[in-house]
Amino acid sequence: MTTRVAFQGELGAFSDGAVRVFFGRAAEPVACREFADVAASVLAGEVHFGLLPVENTLAGSVVAAYDVLATRPLVIVGEVVTPIHHCMLGIPGASLDGITRVRSHPVALAQCTRWLASRPGVQAVAAYDTAGSARDVAAAADPTLAAIAGRGAADRYGLAVLAADVEDRPDNQTRFLVVAARDGHTGAALPRHGGAMKSALVAETQNAPGALVGILAPFAARGINLSKLESRPTGEPWRYRFLIEIDADAASGDTAAALAEARRHASRLDVLGSFPRWTGAVETGG
């Protein structure tokens, strides 16, 4: 059986590549328009797993992906970290000096600020996807229009690389989380990657002094490292939820005790999943 994995974007996107890194070349990546569509596809049983980018070393957190994790009945079952090298792509025959507009996902544009600043005559245009932007450039056949995307998108859509490695740092990386339906059986094997376990949590508190400290202190008291803390609005004015990652398995004795104590200070505290930390090689050259 072929493992089907939903991702946001078009074929040739960096998420498409991350699916293949984690699941192997035999997996079938399934393109979705939005992060919410990835979740919907997983929950409907149309795919076995989904993959969401959650943070980039240059642009920071991908907040829309965190909102999906906090509001859908998904479980996190793995992570993968991949290098991200951006290229300026144009139609064959286009010249770099002739480009006046460049399209890409806002998170990708945020990873290329220095290069874009060096080209003040080029207008950056936000789009829903890197590879989708490359596809649109190919369809437009406009020598003044370019896309910022990866080499995989150039190969897929027949575009020329006008400039390579335009990201702000050569060690640029993105971390993705692999998700499954919380109440369903995927019917597909999950590859085992990584070593030590980590866990993701979502918490909500009353708007009171020390409320967040009350959630975090039980982990610190037991020597459990906090590796990620992200605040997101709940929708209710001035009330927030917190996405938390800890370097421990939620099922371990100390962690279970910390969770029990932390729940006394929370109006909501759910474990989104425990999964192996990614320890695969991450190439960082240009």
TrEMBL record:
Pathway: Amino-acid biosynthesis; L-phenylalanine biosynthesis; phenylpyruvate from prephenate: step 1/1. Transmembrane segments: none annotated. Keywords: Amino-acid biosynthesis, Aromatic amino acid biosynthesis, Lyase, Phenylalanine biosynthesis. GO terms for molecular function: prephenate dehydratase activity. The keyword Lyase applies. One of its GO terms (cellular component) is cytoplasm. GO terms for biological process: L-phenylalanine biosynthetic process. Residues 200-276 form the ACT domain. It is an enzyme of class 4 (lyase). The record marks T174 as: Essential for prephenate dehydratase activity. Its EC number is 4.2.1.51. Residues 4-181 form the Prephenate dehydratase domain. PANTHER family: PREPHENATE DEHYDRATASE P PROTEIN (PTHR21022), PREPHENATE DEHYDRATASE-RELATED (PTHR21022:SF19). This is Prephenate dehydratase. It comes from Longimicrobium terrae. The gene is pheA.
